[in-house]
Amino acid sequence: MLALSIFYKCRFPIASLLCVACMFIGSRTAAEEIKVISPDYWCPFGCKAGTPLEGYPIEILRAIFEPQGIKIQYSNMNYSRALVEVRKGEFTLIPSVFKEEAPDFIFSKETISDSRYCFYTQTTSTWRYASVESLVGLRIGGVKSYSYGSQIDAAIKQHKYQFDLQSGDGLTERLVRMLMAGRVDSFIENEYLVSYTAKINSDIHLREAGCEESSTTVMGFSPADKISAQRYAGMFDAGIVKLRRSGDLAKIMERYGLRDWVKAEQGTSVQKTKAH
């Protein structure tokens, strides 16, 4: 109806300039947009919005969607709240999730990372993680809303008193500081996030005490609009395959000092990186 109204008005010369302006403004207002939300402490997977390096998944999204006229709007929020806001439809997607963390979301088929969680202790400790049974008697730090795999998730559910789960911002460094202050005996976190945190904080000295098996993460789209979510997931799946084939994905990863996390179709060897 709006287009028809503008058409009739534009039949008269006096209104022609106004019509052109209205049509221009209308086209800008109707521009399609994907709202991406991520903590800024996931760097290089989700970094601070507005910086030169916002995170390689963000650059991948821009490379896929923006040439098709769909703008990527990226902002930061702590993970627990981000899950809630994406679920409600306030944001379109979280760029790296485990399916167990949000089973009602719409997921991409193509992965965005390969992730491994590890336990960390102070350098003077001799304890090593072997299984959930080896956690008995220890105070363990972790992040609320994360999924650490079925066995550890079950242990957290059954022995809540044993786990100090944090939420909010700056979680990786917070877990490190809790350990260094003796508030926990160990904490579990993504190994790349811990390495990055230690790299930018020279006073941090940790000991890796064992890791879980690695698993993949995917793009998690809001279930509030399933039709749009499925469309975007399909576009992402097709787009990342094209980026990989063209070599543009490798260029994006190189900006972060990383390589592709899966075997390229041209027959290159498997390369891995990590996410939250």
Describe the overall structure:
The chain is α/β, with parallel strands linked by helices and 276 residues long. It has helices at 2-9, 16-29, 56-65, 79-88, 150-158, 171-180, 191-200, 226-246, 248-254; strands at residues 33-38, 71-76, 93-97, 106-115, 117-121, 140-143, 163-166, 186-190, 207-211, 215-221. 36% of the residues are buried. The strands form three sheets. A five-stranded mixed sheet has the order 7-6-8-5-9. Strands 3-10-4 form a three-stranded antiparallel sheet. A two-stranded parallel sheet has the order 1-2. It is built from nine helices and ten strands. 36% of the residues lie in helices and 21% in strands. The model is unreliable at 4-12, 24-29 and 263-276 (pLDDT under 50).
Helix content: 25-40%
Task: Return the string of H and E elements.
Answer: HHEHEHEEEEHEHEHEEHH
Q: How can the largest sheet be summarized? A: 5 strands, mixed
Structural class: alpha/beta
State the strand order across the main sheet: 7-6-8-5-9
SSE map:
Layout lengths: L1 H8 L6 H14 L3 E6 L17 H10 L5 E6 L2 H10 L4 E5 L8 E10 L1 E5 L18 E4 L6 H9 L4 E4 L4 H10 L5 E5 H10 L6 E5 L3 E7 L4 H21 L1 H7 L22
Parallel strand pairs: 1-2, 6-7, 6-8
Antiparallel strand pairs: 3-10, 4-10, 5-8, 5-9
Helix pairs in contact: 1-2, 3-8
Keywords, separated by commas or semicolons:
276 residues; 36% helix; disordered C terminus; 9 helices; 3-stranded antiparallel β-sheet; alpha/beta; 5-stranded mixed β-sheet
Short description:
This protein is of the alpha/beta class and 276 residues long. It is built from 9 helices and 10 strands. 36% of the residues lie in helices and 21% in strands.
